[in-house]
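Title: Prediction job returns without error message
Component: structure pipeline
Severity: low
Priority: P3
Assignee: unassigned

Description:
Job completed but the reporter wants confirmation the result is attached to the right record. Sequence as submitted:
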Amino acid sequence: MITKKLALAVGAVIALTACSDKASETKLQYPVTKQGEVVDSYFETKVADPYRWLEDDMSAETAAWVESQNQVTQGYLEQIPYREQIEQRLTKLMDYKKEGIPFVEGDYRYYYKNDGLQNQSVLYRQRGDEAEEIFLDPNSFSEDGTVSLAGITFSEDGSLAAYQISEGGSDWRKVYVIDTNTKQKLEAPLVDVKFSNISWRGNTGFYYSSYDKPKGSELSAKTDQHKLYFHKLGTEQNQDELVFGGTDSEKHRYVGSSVTKDEKYLFIYASVSTSGNKLFIKDLTDASKGLYTLVGDTSSDTELVTSKGEDFYLLTNKEAPNQRLVKVNLNALDTWVDIIAEREQVLDISKAGDTVFAKYLMDAATKVEQYDLAGNKVRDISLPAIGTASGFSGKESQAQVYYSFSNYHTPSSIYSYDLASGESSLYRQSNIEFDGSKYESKQVFYASKDGTKVPMTITYKKGIELDGANPTLLYGYGGFNISLRPGFSTTRALWLELGGVYAVANLRGGGEYGKAWHKAGTQMQKQNVFDDFIAAAEYLIENKYTSSSKLAIQGGSNGGLLVGATMLQRPELFKVALPAVGVLDMLRYHTFTAGAGWAYDYGTANDSQEMFDYLKGYSPVHNVKAGVDYPATLITTGDHDDRVVPAHSYKFAAELQKLHTGSNPTLIRIETDAGHGAGTPTSKVIEQYADIYGFALYNMGVKKL
């Protein structure tokens, strides 16, 4: 007989034992959330907002509320008999060496590596066959791992680097500049940088973007006019040159830049929302010249891939919803010549050497083809299986590049690829203690409410019995043109080990089938996304993968909205709801931080009576009904989330606790000193998923593992 301790030690598969008892017979006593008298008026309709005070994220009163909610939640989670067992197994499962895709800068090959349970991955480098060395160790930035490395950009010759750090998961960043030879910092950090890439101009300085520091609460105050600056090395930040923004009659909420490899031209991207951008060109060799307008409106997305003199190669969905690669000459900006024409599948492009890689989405999986810059196809690239390949990017001088491959049950491995011969060879193989061969994935297409066929990938242990009794986690996002592609996750591997089924639905609103698929889930078509998710759940139940009593739904950010809306519309369909860092107050989301930039997907309550009515009709905060037995709910958020502010989750939790009926718990887990999710320390990830999986299984009636 294998003991619990031995099972954990050898990584034995843990079987689930179900019981018919309710997870908890004692009704929880929730903290009392006071109600204010704030009432807003929208087109002569009065809407109460009794929890407006929770938007003051820096107040002592809100802090006390957070503490009291966490006490109740942790008290509940501590009664789950196998929560610690899940944490121990996840700790062991995550304790393996992980390495990222290498990239070349100067004479070095750089790569991120985590020895196992380090809170943050470390940036290493290696020159030729010399011994590797640590270049940057984010674990030294703070004792608890809550300060993370949020990106690094090297100058063209690799001698300088600018890296960004995030403190407590914040989107506000500091930027440090270092000499890569000595690893010494060269000047005081830039501060208050947000939503910014770094574009070097030689070794003299770089371009970056930010907003003016907001007044009031730094966490939730609105930021809606992005500006592009040039920082000259050796000068104070207050002397940085304003290059774009600030004087325009129209505000741009997102501004970015890129400098051509010959450093002759600066490309400036300007957007009013998360979709669509204007594109301008500045001649860096002649200061007297103004901006060339390449794209003058935000009806399409266009970005620079590479350049050759005055020829610019652009990836665009202008007049091509699934994207195409075009060539444009500086002297004929209205003439766009197709290099790789639009196809039925969505195109993405990367470049290395003198070739480009066309990466197509084939029903959410990757297909890769190699082309020269004249548009001649060189070859198809064979991948190990159906899944996701990432990488294929490098310098013009490189003869080989690297890419990774994984799917839902195949741990990520890294391959090197020879540009001339087309040969791939294994560079690094995952050594995680997880046998992916015991599991399989199946892609199905199901009909949504209006008949639209929607793909879903279902992953499970081979030989599973379709008896409706399998604990199942259904995940979705459905927004912002983001595609959910098959990829390996250690936390999902644990769910599979626990005997669970993991299903991912590629809902409308995403980018899996191009711009049309995205737009079909935006604004007054947003209900399509919820209908797609509900239909996915119904498919899983009808085909006996699970039943309503064993089904959990999960999603984060826009996916948190998805979970919040569907659990309210069809509460009987799900047993557990797990909305994370969700956009849940659809009448006020655009008044916080950069939220107004999401209006392309959502619309705003101020747009029109019709848009207000539509948003109010599904806004989770405004649609909790009294006397309804809602699914067991564990809301998760971070108290320093400055992208989707925690007030969304706070209000939703308060309203659920006030109005729901039945014995299902409605709890909120608030991570302190944490943001929207990026850069979360490994230790916190382990604790969070032990809580989430423990909560889900416990409320599905699983008595022991």
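Comment from assignee: result matches the submitted record. The first helix runs from residue 4 to 10.
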